[in-house]
From TrEMBL, chains A, B:
Functional description taken from the UniProt entry: Catalyzes the phosphorylation of D-fructose 6-phosphate, the first committing step of glycolysis. Uses inorganic phosphate (PPi) as phosphoryl donor instead of ATP like common ATP-dependent phosphofructokinases (ATP-PFKs), which renders the reaction reversible, and can thus function both in glycolysis and gluconeogenesis. Consistently, PPi-PFK can replace the enzymes of both the forward (ATP-PFK) and reverse (fructose-bisphosphatase (FBPase)) reactions.
Stated name of the protein: Pyrophosphate--fructose 6-phosphate 1-phosphotransferase
NCBIfam families in alphabetical order: PRK14072.1
Pfam families xrefs: PFK
Active site, renumbered: 145 (proton acceptor)
UniProt EC number: 2.7.1.90
Main location: cytoplasm
Pathway participation: Carbohydrate degradation; glycolysis; D-glyceraldehyde 3-phosphate and glycerone phosphate from D-glucose: step 3/4
Subunit text: Homodimer.
Reactions performed catalytically: beta-D-fructose 6-phosphate + diphosphate = beta-D-fructose 1,6-bisphosphate + phosphate + H(+)
Necessary cofactors: Mg(2+)
GO BP term (any one): fructose 6-phosphate metabolic process
Amino acid sequence: MAKKKYNAFYAQSGGVTAVINATACGVIETARASKNIGKVYAGKNGIIGALREELIDTSKESKKDIAGLKFTPSGAFGSCRHKLKSIEENKAEYERLIEVFKAHDIRYFFYNGGGDSQDTAHKVSQLSETMGYPITCIGIPKTVDNDLPITDNCPGFGSVAKYVAVSIREAAFDVKSMAETSTKVFVMEVMGRHAGWIAAAGGLACEKEGDAPHIILFPEIAFNKEKFLKKVDRTVKKFGYCAIVVSEGTAYKDGTFLADAGTVDAFGHKQLGGVAPEVANMIKDELGYKYHWAVSDYLQRAARHIASATDVDQAYAMGKAAVEFADAGKNAVMPTIVRKNTKKYSWTVGEAKLADVANVEKMMPRSYITRDGFGITEECRQYLQPLIQGESYPPYKNGLPQYVELKNELVKKKLKTKFKI
Amino acid sequence: MAKKKYNAFYAQSGGVTAVINATACGVIETARASKNIGKVYAGKNGIIGALREELIDTSKESKKDIAGLKFTPSGAFGSCRHKLKSIEENKAEYERLIEVFKAHDIRYFFYNGGGDSQDTAHKVSQLSETMGYPITCIGIPKTVDNDLPITDNCPGFGSVAKYVAVSIREAAFDVKSMAETSTKVFVMEVMGRHAGWIAAAGGLACEKEGDAPHIILFPEIAFNKEKFLKKVDRTVKKFGYCAIVVSEGTAYKDGTFLADAGTVDAFGHKQLGGVAPEVANMIKDELGYKYHWAVSDYLQRAARHIASATDVDQAYAMGKAAVEFADAGKNAVMPTIVRKNTKKYSWTVGEAKLADVANVEKMMPRSYITRDGFGITEECRQYLQPLIQGESYPPYKNGLPQYVELKNELVKKKLKTKFKI
């Protein structure tokens, strides 16, 4: 008699990326071939889908559409920013999860997210022990912030890194060609509230002296206005223009974000966001240079059209490995990317305990930032460069990328109770 | 005895684009094979280079580098925003041009720009008549604003159009997947101070009901706050989120730009630019939805990595045709793109008189905008769609596009006088 198969729950968590669906593709394609796993149910809008018993039946999706996830940005099943509290604090949520899992024969839990999500995954992995429900729980790394520990890098980061490096190079070419009579300073704001990984990636565009970006502002380095303006002025005088990448998390020594520097609108409301215009105005006021600024916001993390092929491959591999781990009877672990000690970049899949991953933030080492605090070191470049390698272009129709939209059919509810989030 | 060859002057003018260098490539490659034209001297920073006698000798550039211009954004020789006054107003500038042209055996003038530039080209074309200097002058169209008359469209526009359509599609996918618990409204600001062509291109991403963008704000349509907010609210309630493309030139009925709506910084200075945050704050204040906004600024017009293949082909063809026109003894004309009356999009090269092009702005027809003022019509789509067709990817190395930087060697000056701009 064939062994009974149990279903799997897969959820996307936190901010989505250009390649989190490639991970979903890896999970679903691998699970479809598994001897132990039945159907994969995806949470509608992440973990909330489990709590609300809104389960998407991925078996209703065609092979072609699932394959198409590999080149579709965003979260195909919806994501959310809901963090489960500890079992002591909110036992009801865990009881509800078990109730839903039981009702739908779910004994595998795949949770695809960043630091907070791995913490949730870790809590769920303990349900066997703490609440007697047999569950196999595998975390899957994802975050544009690149701040998960143990893994060499995080799926999602390589593509936003590539977008930022390509964009600042292109915009700087533009500024350079106009600088004699027009814009002399260009400021591009990128994501990264706590860690400067994304801003650092902009530095890859600078391959020789004089190349843009000339200045990078990191959250790790306290902003020194005087020093910064001096550097801007020197750069314009030397190269004719100055291109700047600024992390949204750039802050003064006392921790105040530059973007919170007191700007108010006509109604006296605090102006929200925009460290780029703040920095640009500062330059205009003190140095008088004509400027332009850009805030790429979601464009950077959704830019599947310029995704890193390395990132796409790794994102898929993490999904595949997660299912293989579950198939092998592992629990409470997360696949990782391990950089091999080879001359030419190569990597393999490793394994980390969720307990070691949960709630640990990997910051940029100080040795990755130049002594003056405005650029990246060679060591940083060696680390970042391989992650943006290769172009993985989506298919196009009518001049536009053809991203997949799934049917997302919900499984019929079996529970009578509703759950209030 | 071979006919004496005369040199050509080529200048890039006004805001640069992702494909103006493809036009330069067309000019130089075609001129190199011409029986009449000697060397092509490019103006360093546009027309200023002629006035200052700063002429770049393009014959010093390798065949490979010139070919590389086809996939390099920005202005490889530098551009400027200097508009020549009329001959009556500033005869000195025209005398200087003739002096420089004479000193360097220049009798061909190729001027690559938008409306203002074609006006300059027109004035220069009259030099034979007005000042007795034998010059052949050909204008070459270029502008992301797509506002030149007679030509069906302008090189540079197709690529920014593709960037905007791709970007709003990608960002909207992102927002949609997070909307249940997070951001519900996304606002993307695009260029276009007078005409809404670029904003309209965002509309191409909407291929079926519910697709983003849900709202486009055009400079052509007076902004009605109440009507706008109602539409945002309805859209969020119906589709769960709302994606908006806003033209930087969007204005109230009285002509006040939204971006000039009185926002001041902490020092009481007028906050410069940023209609996207203005609109986003408006939504937050009145409807309370969580929002994100992006300002792509130069990124959009420099985005060679996602250039339209149609645009690249047309940009090159305009440069080639300009030289062919000169070779054929034409003067005071500009090559145009002529849309052929075929079922499948096709085009050919036409010809317009500079006199008819100079200082005429082509606005978007009202019939291209939906009745409610928030979207594009099928007629508009039929016009725009072919212009973003095809992907023309640059070569990559180390994960980054390899854009060409020319040597830009200056010709030895022959004049003793300097000219003050």
